[in-house]
Design brief:
Strand order of the largest sheet: 2-1-5-6-7-8
Number of domains: 2
Helix content: 25-40%
Mean pLDDT: 87
Order of helices and strands: HEHEEEEHEHEEHEHEEEH
CATH topology of the largest domain: Rossmann fold
CATH architecture of the largest domain: 3-Layer(aba) Sandwich
Shape: globular
Largest sheet: 6 strands, parallel
Radius of gyration: 21 Å
Distance between the termini: 25 Å
Number of strands: 12
C-alpha cells in the first residue's frame, strides 16, 4: 500500500518543489510512517494532529504547526471505520483548505457504506449517497478541487454519487497482489482465485482472467433448513487459493468459502 501511494504521488504532480505534508487518522499512524519512509526524491513530512475529545465526547481537534500548511500539498490518510471517526475526520477536511494549502488529496482505503448503496424498498436510506455528499462539500484549495482517492470501492457506480465539487479517483490494490503472485509464480507455485459469491466474481474476476489465473466461484445453496456454501464453478485441487471478496463485514462468508 505504501509503495502504491508513493507511486501515485510521483505520477500526479506532487513533486513540483512545494512541501508535501501527510496528515492521518490516528488509526493510520503506522501506515503513514511507512509511506514517509518510502519517500526519497521528494520528502514527505508527517503532520501532527491532536485527536482529543471534550468531557461530553465531542471531538476536540488541534493541528500543530498549522502555518506549515500554507502553500503545501496536503495528503490525508483517512480511516472511515465507524461513524464517530468519520465525523471528526470530515470536520478536519473541511478546515484544511482554509489554511491555504496548495492542494488536498484524501486517501481512503475503505469506503464503508457498501451495504447501503441503493434503495430497493421505500423507507430505506442510501447512506453511500450521504457519505459521498459529505465528502463533496470539502472546500476548494488554492489550485482547485480536492481529490479523493478510493481504493477498491464496492460498486463502481458509487462514483456518481459525488458532486463535481471534488475529483474522485478510483484505484485498486489488485495490482499489488498481481505483482506478488508473479513473484511467486517464478518459484513454481500455482495459484487460483476464489470468489465467495457472484458479486465478487463480477467485480474482480476480469482483472485475474487477463493474467490467466484459474477462477473458482462459490455460491450458497439451500440444503433442507440450512444454506451452505459450495463450489459453483472451477476446481481448486492442486492450487493455492486466494479468496477475493468485494465487501467484508464479519468475515463469515470468507470462512465458509475457505
Amino acid at each position: 500500500m505504501a509503495n502504491l501511494i508513493i507511486h501515485r504521488q510521483h505520477s500526479h504532480g506532487l513533486c513540483d518543489g512545494f512541501t508535501t505534508i501527510l496528515f492521518y487518522a490516528r488509526e493510520m499512524q503506522k501506515l503513514a510512517e511507512e509511506v514517509q519512509s518510502y519517500s526519497r526524491e521528494h520528502r514527505i513530512e508527517l503532520g501532527n494532529i491532536e485527536w482529543k475529545v471534550f468531557s461530553d465526547n465531542w471531538p476536540n481537534i488541534f493541528i500543530r504547526n498549522s502555518e506549515q500548511i500554507r502553500n503545501s500539498h496536503v495528503l490525508f490518510l483517512a480511516s472511515f471505520h465507524n461513524p464517530q471517526t468519520i465525523f471528526e475526520q470530515i470536520s478536519l477536511l473541511y478546515h484544511l483548505p482554509k489554511y491555504l494549502c496548495r492542494s488536498l488529496k484524501v486517501l481512503l482505503p475503505y469506503f464503508p457504506t457498501g451495504t447501503m448503496e441503493r434503495i430497493q424498498t421505500p423507507g430505506e436510506i442510501a447512506t453511500a449517497y450521504s457519505l459521498a455528499q459529505m465528502l463533496s462539500s470539502i472546500p476548494l484549495t488554492r489550485t482547485g478541487p480536492c481529490e479523493v482517492v478510493i481504493f477498491d470501492i464496492h460498486a463502481l457506480q458509487n462514483q456518481f454519487y459525488f458532486s463535481s465539487n471534488i475529483i474522485v479517483r478510483l484505484e485498486s490494490t489488485v495490482e499489488l497482489l498481481l505483482d506478488e503472485l508473479n513473484n511467486r509464480k517464478n518459484q513454481n507455485e500455482k495459484f487460483a482465485m476464489a470468489f465467495p459469491d457472484d458479486g465478487a466474481h463480477k467485480r474482480f474476476a476480469h482483472m485475474f482472467e487477463e493474467n490467466k489465473y484459474p477462477i473458482v466461484v462459490c455460491s450458497k445453496i439451500r440444503e433442507g433448513d440450512k444454506r451452505i456454501t459450495t463450489i459453483k464453478e472451477g476446481n481448486p485441487s492442486g492450487y493455492h487459493c486466494i479468496i477475493i471478496d468485494d465487501l467484508v463485514q464479519s468475515g463469515g462468508t470468507l470462512m465458509e468459502c475457505a
